[in-house]
Amino acid sequence: MSMITATTWVPRGYAAPFPTKYQFDEDEFERISKLAKLELDDAKDDLAEAQAELTGEKTPKKDESDDDDDDETHATGAAMQDIDLQDDDLKEYDLENYDNDDAEENEDGEGNGSLSMFGNVRNLAYHGSNAEDPYITLKEGEESDDDEREEMQILPTDNMLLAARIEDEVAHLECYVYEDDADNLYVHHDIMLPAIPLAVEWLNMPISKPGEPAPEGQKANFVAVGTMDPDIEIWDLDTVDCMYPNAVLGQGTAEISAGPTMPGQKKKKKRKSKQINDKYHIDSVLALSANRFHRNLLASASADCTVKLWDLSTQQCAKSYNDFHTDKVCALHFHPHEAHSTILLTGSYDRTVCVADLRAAEGTKPKRWGVDSDVEQVRWDPHNEHVFYVSTESGILYAFDARNAPSSPEKTQAIWRLQAHEASLSSFALNPTVPGFIATASTDRTVKLWNIDQTTNQPSMVVSRDLGVGRVFSANFAPDEAVAFRLSVAGSKGAVQVWDTSTNRAVREAFAGRVKGIDATEVKERLVAVANDEEESDSDDDEENEDEAGADERGWESMSE
């Protein structure tokens, strides 16, 4: 079984033209050993506690295990003595002299004749490397290195698309390259992850490894990944074959950064805390949002009901917000306008959304709105600084005005309320270039495109499509103007599709007047995908058959204000 849980785009021009290979040296080995030891120690302690609770017995002592091994060795030796080495079938192998040193052989290497075929091995010519061998004219690796370098190249006109995949209980982050001119989408490299990924956020902030100087340059290409574990991993996207992230935001990093103990001082092992605190998460990380104007700030939402603000320059938690919500916080988004760059939008399973200015004085309560069911996703409008959108588990999309906060969540009034899907509205995207262009995606397997009328400010559906990715978990518009109409979609079938929505006739008719170069003429639709060789699970097949059988009965989705 394979599925993709989250995706995000990397803008053009940020990826290195030629990514570097991961260098594993002594310092890197020591760093990884420290981080891995923390996880291993905790796992051992958890296992011992679980076994003690279930059986009430102590684990076997080491000397008892050694005694068992000795008994087994003696038994094996006795069995060997029972073998008759004078047996005619065994004589020819000379087992009695099997362990004798090779020094008994003569200088010519002939010995007793058993190794005579290698008798002239000392007379063979030997060269330290193939480059020193005069008979080898084609230098080793020159042609293959050039080919590999060309295959790894990322052009300035290419986009990277990151997809968090879980496949047969193995989690990894796939780094795709999308070539728009060639209609080509392929996996450039991937990164192994420790747990099921839930959130992926691109970072334009150079993150150095502990003990290393901060990287220079205005541009950076990193990614933060939130998983079922409470830690947040940060990876360098310009390095391939990485074994471990550049940084881990959580308790483990805090313990390592505390430094080694003094000579003669006994190190006291500190177990991972299960209590909510101001330094790190203690449960799954469900959402991430990077501040595009203050590059060192990253916000995280967790199942521990808290929101944390991280300073990436120190890799420590700068502030913890424990009173925004009373249930799991599953969505958040920094304001995309520079004038409001410190305002954070959050959503929770407590059926509320909050707008908070992180510069506000201690004790200031955030503005709060209520919705009908659990929040799925929240987003600010990139074209209207006062409007934000919220999707819910019931398939409803809300539009709110941040200036009109209700006195209580129960008295919430939305600008409009749209029943976009019958199932959970798991993801939606606002086009960063085209005003009023919204895409919604649902676990009902459909993707719908909507037009917000610039006069009446009311939504109307443009087109609905099943793109064959199963239950849709993620949908995002490309961030660059040249590819503004490209929509990435991924879901339960483990497939990624990039849909050029500008090739759809209904889309062209709806937005022809808002974007240059788009008219109502009909063109061939473009849908770019990577072939998926994995078969879908039986349960997914059954659900798909049920959906197809009931498609005629369901018909078009309704829209209500």
Automatic annotation (TrEMBL):
Annotated InterPro entries: PWP1, WD40/YVTN_repeat-like_dom_sf, WD40_PAC1, WD40_repeat_CS, WD40_repeat_dom_sf, WD40_rpt
UniProt KW keywords: Phosphoprotein, Repeat, WD repeat
UniProt repeat feature WD, residue ranges: 278-320, 418-460
Biased composition (Acidic residues): 532-550
CC per GO annotation: nucleus
Highest taxon in the source lineage: Eukaryota
Compositionally skewed regions (Basic residues) per UniProt: 265-274
Span list, region Disordered: 46-88, 255-275, 529-561
UniProt biased composition (Basic and acidic residues): 55-64, 551-561
Cited Gene3D superfamilies: YVTN repeat-like/Quinoprotein amine dehydrogenase
BP GO terms, sorted: rRNA processing
Classification via PANTHER family: PERIODIC TRYPTOPHAN PROTEIN 1, PERIODIC TRYPTOPHAN PROTEIN 1 HOMOLOG
Protein name (database record): rRNA processing protein Pwp1
Source organism of the structure: Aureobasidium melanogenum
Lineage: Eukaryota, Fungi, Dikarya, Ascomycota, Pezizomycotina
